[in-house]
Design brief:
Length: 376
């Protein structure tokens, strides 16, 4: 009872603090409702609150990996991304597309319309349809709010809600850490990944892109693995990956997704990054200080409940690689870092500039871009 009173007090206090405080109050209220009902349920967050959380999470991602400070590359990425987002269920979000400055192959969605893709991933992508496949998958993580569900699942945040404000890290910080951790460190659950695959492929097709772009990209990832070391080779044929590819291929057939544009020349004209062999990707010690999250992240991990969903790791877009996520335990990673538990895709060294490269695009430019690429 006392605890409940304290929570209400915090929420009211938060409400008088302006935007950040308002959001803090909202998060606490949502967790409080969930706790009372003794269940995990959707947090009622406004788009503005979601946007603010996403901005903080994106900042952590950008601080960790750096941003390629290239306006032309960002403009191209934003045109493809916006063409897709326009056909999504949340076209009005302030969509922001970011190229992360690292050789690791990865993509991360953050709440409120942030989509990040690494230089290393763009280097492996062969055409615009493949890029659309990857971006479509990440856009769905945002539109279906997979990115904010991490908050109420987080034991650390729930504990934070039950605590007084005397803790060393604020609840908002915990919420940001929980979300970052879920997106970058652990990845989403299998159900969310499947949903993103299915709806993302459908979105790419709706925009006019050949729907097998995601399959093409994931196949390249798989083959890249096969070519590295023996152990990686073993994991390259990991059934989960093949199952995933088969499932997407079946979906394309059963839903009769028949768009055809691949737009290879335009992709080649705009993106010229060269892939780095996975064994020579420079990595940083995942436990090293200076990584986004720092001590807070370590604390969060300790407080995290033992996974009730056993197999969810190793299933994210960038986690198809052996050594990533849950496969880490069995695969002794022999990447450049050489260290056990290092995932070169996630633990790759990043650039030092976290600034977003701003891109302004008007609707007419997207329309012209689509027309030029032969998209309906
Ligand atoms: Zn995903």
């Amino acid at each position: 009872m006392m605890r409940t009173t304290a929570l209400v007090a915090i929420a009211v206090f938060g409400a008088s603090l302006g935007v950040e405080g308002k959001q803090l109050g909202q998060i606490i209220k949502g967790i409080q409702v969930a706790q009372k009902a003794n269940e995990v349920r959707d947090l009622a967050m406004t788009d503005a609150e979601e946007q603010e959380l996403g901005t903080a999470v994106s900042e952590r991602i950008r601080t960790r990996y750096g941003v390629v400070q290239d306006a032309a590359v960002h403009r191209y990425l934003a045109l493809v991304g916006t063409a897709l987002a326009q056909g999504s269920t949340r076209p009005a979000l302030p969509w922001t597309f970011v190229v992360l400055d690292t050789d690791g192959v990865n993509a991360f969605a953050a709440p409120g319309g942030y989509v990040h893709i690494t230089r290393g991933a763009l280097a492996l992508v062969k055409n615009e349809a493949e890029l659309a496949g990857v971006l479509g998958h990440e856009i769905i993580h945002v539109t279906e709010k997979h990115t904010i569900k991490a908050i109420q699942k987080s034991k650390a945040v729930q504990m934070g809600a039950a605590e007084t404000l005397s803790g060393s890290s604020s609840l908002m910080e915990r919420a940001v850490t929980a979300t970052y951790d879920n997106i970058v460190e652990r990845g989403f659950g299998r159900a969310e990944e499947n949903e993103s695959d299915e709806m993302g492929v459908t979105l790419a097709n709706k925009t006019g892109y050949a729907p097998n772009g995601l399959v093409g990209f994931l196949t390249t990832l798989k083959d890249r693995n096969k070519a590295s070391t023996e152990k990686r080779g073993l994991f390259a044929s990991h059934p989960e990956m093949q199952e995933r590819l088969d499932r997407i291929t079946r979906l394309i057939a059963s839903k009769k997704l028949t768009a055809t544009a691949t737009v290879q020349p335009r992709y080649a004209k705009n993106i010229s990054y060269k892939p780095v062999v996975v064994t020579v990707i420079a990595v940083v010690d995942p436990g090293a200080a200076g990584l986004a999250g720092g001590d807070t992240k370590a604390a969060e991990k300790k407080e995290e409940p033992k996974a009730e969903e056993p197999k969810k790791k190793g299933f994210g877009l960038g986690r198809m690689m052996p050594g990533g996520g849950g496969e880490k335990k069995s695969a002794q990673v022999t990447a450049s870092g050489g260290a056990r538990g290092v995932d070169p895709e996630k633990d790759s060294k990043g650039g030092s500039n976290p600034k977003v490269v701003p891109v302004k695009i008007v609707a007419a430019e997207v329309a012209a871009f689509k027309k030029e690429g032969g998209l309906p």
